[in-house]
């Protein structure tokens, strides 16, 4: 089941939203509706869904409707039309008690302006959400301390927010959202006010935290680089509408229209795309336990001439070719003897494609993406090398609008 599902959602600001909604449904544009009725279409007939554990980014220029959309997701504002499902429950239909409970239990929120209480310590700020839920002091301080540590602020528990830099204050904001232990984090331009270097640190840490804690993140930004870096998938908004949803790679390689094309055309793919953006799961894997006969069968099934070998915990062991597998089988030799390890090049998920070009040109095997010793995915040499060619022929890419 989707963690968040937004279905045909519309928000119109003004005195008679239903009238404007009719116009919208008749195909009138935001600008025309504003001109003729004075009403503003904030979000227009938008749909998307976010899977559990997914990092979903909404990207668009200022005024495109991002904040309106995220506020509809936790129903800080009422929709004009459409539904928002959180874990399958329609938040737009909930009564007040259920809504409050859903927000507290499921939806953590981090804003651009940190919204910290100046006269409270870091610890008390982080524990605030738990305090208003009536959690006792000991438990909330325990949880608050843990999330303060998670965001790297251990030692600052009794500081007051104004003693901290902007980046650290935003860490407090993040810790406050984490302390509530919600599955979902909603982040509206949370890093947009930070200096570039601090911002990069925060991005890296958020990715690590999300991975470690398994959060589902709905993250808003107006910054394309930030979106490409963070998002498992990205929704691009324009004038209240979602114009494309896709992975970084989808959006760079197949922009849905001229607007998106113009947005992404100056991006150097190799400097933005990371291994995790282009890796895929290996079609087949085998373990020592399976033995050479099984390995051969698996290769035959998919027509592969080699297979990656992992142990039961998915730790990467090496590559076995079909010839060696047959030899191991016929001569009753352990597969381990034939494993190729030295010639296999590894990258981590955040290695830039740019740094893999040289490797791809030299190696004969796919590049493995290893995270904590485990095989996260593989990248074919061709995908890197052909990606480069595409990048160079950018001018010839045609777009339709
Ligand atoms: P973003 O977050 O992408 O910058 P917003 O969601 O804040 O965009 O705004 C989307 C559109 O809705 C804009 O045209 C904005 O002026 C309008 N808008 C947002 N909030 C209100 C409001 N409370 N009343 C009237 N118009 C609003
Ligand atoms: Mg905004």
Automatic annotation (TrEMBL):
Give start and end of each CBS domain.
279-335
Single biological process term from Gene Ontology: response to osmotic stress
Keywords, sorted A to Z: Amino-acid transport, ATP-binding, CBS domain, Cell inner membrane, Cell membrane, Membrane, Nucleotide-binding, Transport
Question: Which InterPro entries has this protein been placed in?
Answer: AAA+_ATPase (IPR003593), ABC_osmolyte_uptake_ATP-bind (IPR051921), ABC_transporter-like_ATP-bd (IPR003439), ABC_transporter-like_CS (IPR017871), CBS_dom (IPR000644), CBS_dom_sf (IPR046342), Gly-betaine_transp_ATP-bd (IPR005892), P-loop_NTPase (IPR027417)
Q: What is the enzyme's main class?
A: translocase
Q: Which residue numbers delimit the ABC transporter domain?
A: 4-264
Q: How does it sit in the membrane?
A: Peripheral membrane protein
Per UniProt, subunit arrangement is: The complex is probably composed of two ATP-binding proteins, two transmembrane proteins and a solute-binding protein.
Question: What protein am I looking at?
Answer: Quaternary amine transport ATP-binding protein
